[in-house]
Design brief:
The protein has 323 residues and is of the alpha/beta class. Helices cover 47% and strands 19% of the residues. Helix 7 links the parallel strand 5 and strand 6.
């Protein structure tokens, strides 16, 4: 018994020093950023741009690994169960961090319990667009049209439970209108049908919306964030267009497994802060319509909590489910 207690004390002492030692040596091998969606999307692009900016700051390769499936849950679960040593991270959109727990009947992980917040890396404005032939030149006219013709207007999205879907549901609820959701397998086919007039309206991320609005293929009515977007400065916000308090944006946040030592998390936050201040990275973000994040650690954690609460209400109101 005495020997067993000595082993326990030795183990406790080793754990006590593990944090500082891990931070001092971290990273001692390549850092892996898991993206829980396929290559080529906004999440993937942001991750690769961040990885490039982090490499010189960390002195190790920073590699991006795509592990898609179940609305982002497959990749997120892999990181939740990875060794908590700062070498495996998750860069995710709202789905796996704030929305899916309200959509899926069963979750393989619990975001609030299983992840430590590192940084809000980027926010991407969402644009409300309508098909060019629609008799609505602004948000007020769109709401009035929907009220005159309940159930006739259809809005597309990149899939059930996506931020773009739930932005539409939030719009429907706050405006008190009856519009029909049409989910697609990705934003691109939804945009094709919006251009062609098969659907009448859509919320979509700035990188995809920007060329269509600028080219006149669709009509931009408003942006869904709290302020106007630099990429489309002529568009007002939805909130300023008759729906005060309306806010929806796509964002990308970096998290680590929950038990990652505090000292490692602090170094990660410092590296992200430096990367997000880099002029080259900021320019690349701006070209795609993304804005660098400014929340680190606990502040980002508070933001995640608020997002979970907000989207939980929207999911409940919409009745959306994803299995």
């Amino acid at each position: 018994m005495h020997l067993h207690r000595r082993h326990l004390l030795a183990a406790s002492a080793a754990l006590a020093f593990a944090g500082p030692a891990a931070a001092q040596n971290w990273p001692d091998r390549p850092v892996r950023i898991v993206v829980p969606f396929p290559p080529g999307g906004s999440n993937d692009i942001i991750a690769r741009q961040l990885a490039e900016a982090l490499r010189p700051l960390l002195g190790q390769p920073v590699v991006v690994e795509n592990r898609a499936g179940a609305g982002g849950n497959v990749g997120a679960d892999a990181v939740a169960k990875a060794a908590p040593d700062g070498h495996t991270l998750l860069l995710a959109a709202p789905g796996p961090l704030a929305i899916n727990e309200h959509l899926f009947r069963e979750m393989p992980f619990k975001p609030e319990r299983d992840f430590a917040p590192v940084a809000l890396v980027a926010s991407v404005p969402i644009v409300l667009m309508v098909t060019p032939g629609l008799e609505a030149l602004n948000v007020a006219e769109l709401v009035a049209l929907a009220k005159r013709q309940p159930g006739r207007l259809a809005f597309g999205s990149s899939g059930n439970g996506s931020t773009n879907h739930l932005a539409g549901e939030l719009f429907k609820t706050m405006a008190g209108i009856d519009i029909t959701h049409v989910p697609y397998r990705g934003a691109a086919p939804a945009m094709t049908d919006l251009v062609g007039g098969t659907i009448q309206m859509m919320f979509d991320n700035m990188p995809a919306a920007l060329p269509q609005v600028r080219g006149g293929s669709v009509r931009g009515l408003a942006v869904a964030g709290t302020s106007r977007a630099a990429a489309l400065p002529d568009l007002p916000t939805v909130a300023d267009s008759g729906l005060p308090g309306f806010e929806a944006e796509a964002w990308f946040g970096l998290v680590a497994p929950a038990a990652t030592p505090a000292a490692v998390l602090q170094r990660l936050q410092q590296a992200c802060s430096q990367a997000l201040a880099d002029a080259t990275l900021r320019t690349r973000f701006a070209e795609g319509g993304a804005e660098p994040g400014a929340r680190l650690g606990a502040e980002f954690g508070n933001f995640l909590g608020a997002e979970r609460t907000k989207w939980g209400r929207v999911v409940a109101a919409s009745g959306a489910q994803a299995g």
